[in-house]
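Today's session is about reading a structure prediction critically. Students often jump straight to the picture, but the first step is always the sequence itself: look for stretches that repeat, for charged clusters, for runs of hydrophobic residues. Only then move on to the predicted structure, which in these notes is written as discrete structure tokens rather than atom positions. Here is the chain we will use throughout the hour.
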Amino acid sequence: MPKCLVAGGAGFVGSNLVDELISQSHEVLVIDNLATGKKENLNPQAKFYEADLRNLADIAPLFQGVDFVFHQAALARVQPSIENPVKYHDNNVNVTLNVLVAARDSKVKKVIYASSSSIYGDQAEMPLTEEMIAAPISPYALQKYIGEEYCRLFSYVYKLPTVCLRYFNVYGSRMATEGAYASVVSIFGQQRQKGQPMTIAGDSTHFRTYTYVKDIVRANILAAQSQITDGRAINIGQSTEYTVNEIAKIFGGPTTNIPERIEPARNLCSNILAKKLLGWEPSMDLPEWLENYYKKDMGLL
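Below is the predicted structure for this chain, in token form.
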């Protein structure tokens, strides 16, 4: 079976990916500095290396003999990147370059890069398609787009096979429940559990597409198995969208408004290309998961 390296394998998406790879009998290595990842997320059957991906000399030897690299490591979320762009650039751009250099030098078969729907910015037309020109409106979005461009460059110049997956607002098991990296879904769950009103930024009319983490995991594995090698970007997201108000109504309970943030009005995903190139379709929609899984787990039913 192929040998896989998951950069950021102690994080939310990365650890779910590690679990699935191991369930398919792959040999899996994890590199994570535990800045945002957690030890309790680590699968005991994976070989774990606590290392900082910003140090190329330290991580390069770990890529030897690896077939597929899944680059899930990043400092996520838009708002914190606005507050600390230098730190975010170091972790999101320099780290990606190091991963690609190490993969190139070790003759890895393919790098699968976790990108973000945030690269589209605030587009006038919906749904968002891969042919649209990127228009980042935050440091995080720009950094993810630079990562895509590096993947394409390494495929063209160095013949390193790469593929970029643009995630749309991932939710599911192990998502952050507090701090700067928590999503609106997990924040609402925590607030309801504590009997607090759910905090809504602005007038809550912004629409978002939400994607189940196990669907994201499946897309990564399909991308590794695919014939795509040129660094192209593929949307990985549901084809539905919901306002923050609609999510709050599913949870049920009081809400309160906080100042509006810099964010696009909508990010409705077109996943036609993912269906065509990867044979991928989402299996879970947000309301179903909230009603049948999350609210029960949180003790809200």
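Discussion point for the tutorial: The domain at 3-168+212-236 is CATH 3.40.50.720 (Rossmann fold).
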